[in-house]
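Hello, quick one for you while I still have it in my head. A protein chain has come my way and I'm curious about its shape. Can you walk me through what the tokens say about the fold? No rush at all, and the record is pasted right below.
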Amino acid sequence: MQHGEASPPAAQEGGEPDITASATPPGQQDDGRININTADAAQLQRMNGVGPVTAQRIIDYRAEHGPYTSVDDLLNVKGIGAKTLEKIRSQAVAR
């Protein structure tokens, strides 16, 4: 290996490379946005304006009403108004 080259992923038992460290966590998109349909409370709290109570309300609403079809659906969640939605719009996605 030449100086400056990255080393290949370490092999797991069985000889397969371990690529899990670079995988995108569930609930987060490759572009860094949070998928409001799959994110857990900790992931939701990474968005500006979302604390533990609001994160749980997002999850509860999703469980009761099914998947969000748009980030705008968050307006139906108690505690999320137009101002909060504008803070988190660029950080969230509904897929």
